[in-house]
Design goal:
The protein is an all-alpha fold. The protein has one domain. It has 4 helices and no strands. It starts with 5 loop residues before the first helix and ends in a 10-residue tail after the last helix.
Amino acid sequence: MTTTDPQAVFEASGRLGAMEVLGTQVSAVVSMLRAMYAAHPEPARVRHGFDRLIGQLLVSPYMGHDPDRAVVLLDTAAALTRPLAEAHPHG
């Protein structure tokens, strides 16, 4: 991958808008996390820690007992740990 021109990124971000930029950035982060998880020598250990952290998030004040946030969080967690060969519409 090549590095990008900061001015080009600034201009493209302006055309896309904040939510599209955030969505694109999240897609890149998800891709990196999935690749790292797939390449890790102890994926079960990573998964155990990840599941524990997701559980903590689900009961945290951040979630505010909001069922919609919980659904999105759980779907994202599932997408992050899905085998790379499986396609997912969100990442």
